[in-house]
Design brief:
Elements: E1 6-10, E2 16-19, H1 22-33, H2 39-47, E3 56-60, E4 66-69, E5 76-79, H3 89-95, H4 103-121
Antiparallel strand pairs: 1-2, 1-3, 4-5
Helix pairs in contact: 1-2
Bound molecules: zinc ion.
Length: 123
């Protein structure tokens, strides 16, 4: 089971709700304030020092990152992004190899990949 990422406290009622993802939080606030609530609202709530609408204190739990296992290399990594399943761009690209037909294109892509490797692994 995944750890929870976000905690929202209703400072009027004392109610506390936890969410595993930003999407969960977005859906919860949609349930209260309607469809005008978007993911960007939740991101704004997380950045705000003051309570949202004077009611909701929304914060990350811990460092606010989810620990995941990379779908490609199996390494554990931390992310704030709901959708991220790979530890790095290198793993994402290796998991979905580009389908290349011609030898010429293959050579060109290899050249490019080699050239860009230091940038792709840089943190
Ligand atoms: Zn990986």
């Amino acid at each position: 089971m995944e750890q929870n990422l976000i905690i929202a406290k209703n400072i009027k009622t004392g109610e506390v709700v936890e969410f595993a993802t930003q999407k969960e939080a977005t859906d919860y606030f949609k349930g209260i304030y309607g469809d005008k609530i978007r993911n960007s609202n939740v991101v704004a709530m997380l950045k705000q020092k003051t309570a949202y609408k004077g009611i909701w204190e929304v914060n990350y739990i811990g460092d606010g990152k989810i620990t995941r296992t990379c779908k490609h290399c199996g390494k554990k990594f931390k992310t704030r992004r709901d959708q991220q399943v790979f530890c790095s761009n290198v793993c994402r690209e290796d998991y979905h190899p580009v389908k290349i037909q011609g030898a010429k294109e293959k050579e060109l892509i290899h050249k490019l990949v080699t050239m860009l490797a230091p940038y792709r692994t840089a943190k």
